[in-house]
Design brief:
The chain is an alpha/beta fold. The chain is 33% helix and 27% strand. The strands form 2 sheets. Strands 1, 4, 5, 6, 7, 8, 9, 10 and 11 form a 9-stranded mixed β-sheet that branches. The protein has a two-stranded antiparallel sheet with strand order 2-3. Residues 1-19 have low confidence and may be disordered.
Length: 252
């Protein structure tokens, strides 16, 4: 029995339409140097955190599946450059050595860097100059623009650690005098380690307020304009704010 031409045409159109709806996966790179609540890892797998929730919401907005790829801090820029990931977020052109080689989305959410010490610290730090003479613990591989003049002038010592837990251990054991890190990450560490956090002091100085953005690979399957549109939709429907509310420190 012959199938009518009209039926074949409709079937073919249906196949084409379903194929057009199958979006490629959005490959999101996640730096293994990022700490909770930005990134929560189990081994080499991303299992939770702000990056995961925002990335999943971005995928839903794009109507695309999401693939998270955990990479070492030293390989983040290489992975963007060679197109093995589409985007990496929780970053900013000021922190990115090859910023001009890649695209950048609009602001996603702000990262606020603060200074923390042990409570016995002899002074209240509310200006960059008051960091002079201090051993300052920071995450290796990142740039701290406002503090660089102190290090370049040998007026303070930079002490690098690869991850926040090691940075906080250095503070607790007296290897550093103060640490600089994002308020979100230090707040999460404090909630997870309440006994140790009881001896910590968050200083008034705001080292930086930086809008995080997503670096977009030249080989990304999603354009900057499409990503910007999706982030804008997330801002308008309140999903970014709702996710951030679950992570911010409410009892400062």
């Amino acid at each position: 029995m012959k199938t009518p031409l009209l039926v074949l045409t409709i079937a073919a159109a249906g196949l084409l339409a379903s194929g057009a709806q199958a979006a490629p996966a959005l490959r999101i790179g996640v730096a293994d140097s990022d700490s909770a609540p930005i990134v929560v890892l189990a081994g080499s797998q991303l299992v939770g955190g702000l990056s995961k929730e925002l990335g999943e919401e971005l995928g839903r907005t794009l109507k695309a599946p999401v693939e998270f790829i955990v990479v070492s801090r030293k390989r983040v820029e290489m992975s963007i450059d060679n197109g093995s990931i589409d985007i990496v977020c929780n970053t900013n052109p000021a922190w990115y050595v090859g910023a001009s080689r890649v695209g950048w989305t609009r602001e996603f959410y702000p990262q606020i860097e603060r200074v923390m010490s042990l409570k016995p610290h002899p002074r209240t730090i509310d200006s960059i100059d008051e960091l002079a003479g201090q051993r300052i613990g920071v995450i290796g591989g990142y740039h701290y623009t406002t503090v660089e003049p102190l290090w370049q002038g040998q007026r303070a010592t930079r002490v690098n650690q690869p991850r926040l837990p090691l940075l906080m251990r250095a503070l607790q054991t007296g290897m550093v005098d103060v640490v600089i890190n994002s308020e979100l990450e230090m707040s999460a560490w404090a909630r997870a380690n309440p006994a140790q956090a009881a001896n910590l002091r968050l200083h008034p100085l705001v080292v930086s307020v930086m809008p995080t953005r997503c670096a977009v690979s030249p080989g990304s399957r999603y354009s900057e304009s499409r990503l910007d549109q999706a982030i804008g939709e997330m801002e308008q429907n309140g999903s970014i704010r709702r996710i951030l509310d679950r992570y911010e420190w409410k009892n400062r």
